[in-house]
Amino acid sequence: MKNYIKYIGILALGMVACEPEFENPVDENDAYSNGEADFSNYVALGNSLTAGYADNALYITGQQNSYPNILAQQFSKVQETQEFDQPLMADNAGGLLLNGTPIAGTRLVLGIDAEGNPSPRNYTGQAPSTEVTELLSGPFSNMGVPGAKVYHLVAPGYGNVAGVAAGAANPYFARFASEPGTTVLADAAAQNPTFFTLWIGNNDVLGFATSGGAGVDQTGNFDPSQYGSNDITDPQVFAQAYSTIVTSMIEAGAEEGVLLNIPDVTNVPYFTTVPFAPLSPANPSFGPMIPTLNATFAQLNPALTALRGVSEETPGESVYSIEFSASAASPVIVHDESLPDISAQLTEVLIQSGMDPGQATIYGMQYGQVRQATAEDLLVLTSSGVIGQVNTTRVQELMAMGLTQEQAGQLAVNGVTYPMQDRYVLVPSEIASINGARTAYNQVIAQVANANGLGLVDAAALLQETATTGIPFDGGVLTSTFATGGAFSLDGVHLTPRGYALVANKIIDEINETYNATVPKVNIGNYGTITPSND
Amino acid sequence: MRKVLLLLVFALAGTLTYAGGYRVAVQGQRALAMGHTGVAVVNSAELGFFNPAGLVYLENQLTISAGVSAVFSEVAWQNESTGASARTDNPAGTPFYFNASYKLKDWLSLGLSVYTPYGSTVEWEDDWAGSHLVNNIKLQAIYVQPLVSVKVTDYLSFGGGPIFVTGSVNFNRNLSRTLTDIDGNRSEVTIDASGVNEWGWSASALFTASEDLRIGVNYRSEIIMNAEGGEADFENIPNTPLAPFSDTTFDAELPLPAELTVGLSYQLNDKWLLAFDFNRTFWDVYESLDIKFANGRVANNPRAYEDANTWRFGAQYDATDKLTLRAGYYLDESPVQPGYFAPETPRNDSMGFTAGLSLDVTSRLAIDASFAYIRFDEVDASYDYYVDENMQTVPFGGTYKSVAFIPGLGVTYKL
User: Fold this and answer.
1) Domains of chain B by residue range
2) Distance of CA A1 to CAs A4, A5, B356, Å?
3) Looking at the partner chain, which of A118, A126, A527 has a beta carbon nearest the beta carbon of B178?
4) Which of A117, B175, B277, B412 could disulfide-link B312, Cβ–Cβ 3.0 to 4.6 Å?
């Protein structure tokens, strides 16, 4: 009897140890191959896109879904890897405090108003609680610094918390820089990296682009210390800094890595969402104004076209003559800096044709570089909130010139009577500057990748595909359509977790090809998009 | 000789007792040890479950069989293309049974059986890759059945009785693959219903063809568990009209399908008894798990189960006056069809290898022990009918591998 019980006991123990085992378990080390790459200490360099910035803010869940963190998790399925540490924010509200004062606002969420209309707005459920002066101790594997341009990664003092208030340093890097005088690159190289990714250069054109071209194209100026944040970085400055970064990472031990190039702004919803012709005659606050508007501009059109050397045969045929359609949506009027300024001549012609000199002067000033927008212009996302609205600043200016409040209000309707200002519009000459620089950067990136045997991810092609055909996945098609497309977050520039997962997969493809590895990809359908919240 | 036999029995044990869907075939240690055969085996009060027509053939005035098993089961899932993997961490299930039979007259016995033929506990890691289908589920159903067994002639008897079922269900899953609150906590729902009571019946016949050969048939009716007014608890819901989820009640139906068993037993000689059972479980009734929330929202979860068969073989060897050894095998077809492999009941075809023994402690009391090992093949499978928040049908698939083993202990008492 005792013997039998003993046998049963042994048998039961044997079975307790019996767990289901796969023939080829994915959680064992030989399931995937790292090929010729060594992922044991991966360090990511870059800007906001690398940090996991989304919805116009950096916050914890965004960082957790950064493409470097996604990559690191997949790498850990391939070989033994070090913990991938990120300089996590203090909350999921986003925003920054500097000595208690907010210097960056909360993330955008999709709010729904009482009528059921969705629109992005700042999250108000929690105030920012990430204090810049509460310094973190690293090192951190994700060295992505929101706002960084290429030359910032090699700029000493860029992480000096004392310089943040004056704008001489970056608050995000200040949080986790190893010391005030260090550089992003130095902190990255000091980690003995074995593998790296670099996605930098976006801000070198994007600052200019998102400001509607309000900055300066610094091509030809080789001193970045003279650059403003909205300026375009000179391609030679770009090349020098970029090469330094890559060379230093390789020398530090990261002999394998992947470089990502710079996407085209015309594939980014921040620049493609607002149509150039948004003025609908069905809009009750605009439609009834059309006859009056056209009568007013009819007085100006002969002068506008004549002074530009265009003879107008059919009204509305030329962008220089301004006319709003009563049957279809009309383009806004824009202020195009690239046009010769005809203010003085216009004023003169209007006075000659019998207009009151005061009025003629105002018209001349307001419409000296005006034209109606065309499909070649890109209205930035922030213009959607101002088009058709009365510009109160302009009202004050006009009243100071002697107009009544009513007259001033009539001449201060953004895009209708008051030309959309430079910061809301990328005109073709500005787009050409952006693309000229971007193309030069991408040549540098390709050359550096080629010269060092590194992987090259054509992020530009990836986002172009997203913007045009879309990317099919198991839950539909990922597109660049603002808010609903899934790839771009509510700021229209940065990606969603799903968009970042797409980038991670593209990098994995490149790694597997370049280094004969078999790193598994993620299912982008498992990653979220925008966050709805009425808080 | 004993040792040889023990080795033989345990060698057999190395190869399972379970059944497809959420059927848990563990309704008697003696029967389980013989591959869960028993529709034609007159052995103990376990007949109350297997074939109540046989109760009238029990020799003693009062026979009681009671026992409990521990079901240790684990399911592993992985997806080779993403490298994702997950394992269940299921608590041990404890199916039990109690059968009593009382001989009123030579031709008439009355009985009472309590047993738990349906149930399932599957606990995946929270927020695992398939969490939009299930995080965890616990199903329980207790059958209580008064029985009557009547001998019509020396070679034919009938039995059966009404079944009272009381059951409960608790099911948690994430609302979608991606919906979270502002802090990234996945939005989830738990539905819970308990004290769901329904009625059914079973009827059976036992035909004694000769001294050595018996043939049995048993039918247990389908019982649809109607959970009405269960509680649905929504957690981690973002504050937005786009996610209009708040705690509510729900109605749902879960079928406990009918089961038909036919089988025979053959007394080979003084020592050996052989048994064969064929089960057909009418899973076809389980078309869809539809959860109707009080706010009118309906969650449809197509299942499209099909009727499934189980083939059972068992042997019993009277080793000594006091010791009886048993072994068995069965082949269990899964009711789950390709494309409907949902991780809440991840069952593919399986084989059961069973063994056990009875030891007479006294002339009235015997201890019954059994052990079952259930083997599932590794299977590449998917559930292709999940519809996401954008009305896109999103399959969830991967490779599954399950294992279960079930040690059990019981007693048989005769008076």
Assistant:
1) 2-414
2) 5, 7, 14
3) A527
4) B277
**Residue B42's closest CA among B216, B194, B269?**
B216
Q: Report the Cα–Cα distance between both ends of chain B, in Å, rounded.
A: 32
Structural element, H or E, at residue A405: helix A405-410
The span from the CA of A94 to the CA of A247, in Å, is 34
Residues A335 and A326: beta-carbon distance below 8 Å: no
Put simply, the chain A residues between 472 and 511 with a CB less than 8 A from any chain B CB are 474-476, 498
Q: Dihedral, CA atoms, B190, B194, B197, B200, nearest 10 degrees?
A: 60
Chain B positions in Cβ-Cβ contact with residue A530 (cut-off 8 Å): none
- Report residue A329 as tokens: 């949506």
Residues paired with B298 in a beta bridge: B292
- Joined tokens for residue B225: 């568990």
The DSSP letter of residue B337 is: P
With contact defined as beta carbons under 8 Å apart, do A342 and A307 qualify?
Answer: yes
- Contacts (Cβ under 8 Å, ≥6 apart) of A270: A210, A380, A381, A488, A491, A492, A493
Q: In this complex, do A532 and B238 lie within 8 Å of one another by their Cβ atoms?
A: yes
Task: Evaluate the CA torsion angle A451, A456, A459, A465 in order and state its sign.
Answer: positive
Q: Considering only the beta carbons, identify the residue of B182, B371, B373 that sits closest to A92.
A: B182
Q: What is the pLDDT of residues B312-352, one digit of tens each?
A: 999 999 999 999 999 999 999 999 999 999 998 888 999 99
End-to-end alpha carbon distance in chain A: 69
Q: In chain A, which residues have their Cβ closer than 8 Å to the Cβ of B15? A: none
CA B383 to chain centre: 22
Q: Note whether B371 contacts A: Cβ–Cβ < 8 A.
A: yes
Q: Are B298 and B290 in contact (CB under 8 A)?
A: yes
Task: Provide the pLDDT confidence category of residue B235 given band limits of 50, 70 and 90.
Answer: very high
Task: Round to whole Å and give the CA distance between B175 and B187.
Answer: 6
List Cα–Cα distances, A58 to A95, A146, A413, B143, B166, in angstroms: 7, 8, 35, 56, 52
> CA-CA distance, A447 to A461, in Å (whole number)?
17
Q: Does B150 touch chain A (CB under 8 A)?
A: no
| B207 sits in which H/E element | strand B188-208
Considering just the CA atoms, what is the radius of gyration of chain B in Å? 23
Check: CB of residue B404 under 8 Å from CB of residue B20.
no
- For the stretch B38-59, pLDDT in tens is 999 998 999 999 999 999 999 9
Longest dimension (CA), chain B: 75
Angle between the N-to-C axes of helices A290-307 and A343-352, in degrees from 0 to 180, rounded to the nearest 10: 110
Residue in A closest to B81 by C-alpha: A520
- B263 neighbors B278 (Cβ within 8 angstroms): yes
Q: B234 - beta bridge partners?
A: B189
Interface contact B129, partner A, CB < 8 A? yes
- Say how far apart CA B377 and CA B12 lie, in whole Å: 18
Q: Best mutation site among B127, B133, B240 for testing chain A: the one with the most A CBs within 10 Å?
A: B240
Domain B2-414 belongs to what architecture? Beta Barrel (2.40)
Instruction: Please tell me the distance from the alpha carbon of residue A68 to that of residue A47, in angstroms, as a whole number.
Output: 12
Question: Judged by CB atoms within 8 Å, which residues 56-75 of B form the interface with A?
Answer: 72, 74-75
Measured between CB atoms, does A25 come within 8 Å of chain B? Answer: yes
Q: Is A274 exposed, middle or buried (0-12, 13-18, 19+ CB in 10 A)?
A: buried
Enter the pTM of the model.
Answer: 0.92
Whole-number Å distance between alpha carbons of B360 and B369? 12
Task: With CA atoms as reference, report the closest residue to B389 among A196, A139, A528, A514.
Answer: A528
pLDDT along chain A (535 residues), means of 10: 56 61 86 96 98 98 98 96 97 96 96 91 96 95 97 96 94 97 97 98 93 89 93 97 98 97 94 94 91 90 84 65 92 92 92 89 92 93 92 93 90 94 92 95 98 97 97 96 96 97 98 97 96 93
The one-character DSSP state at B285 is: G
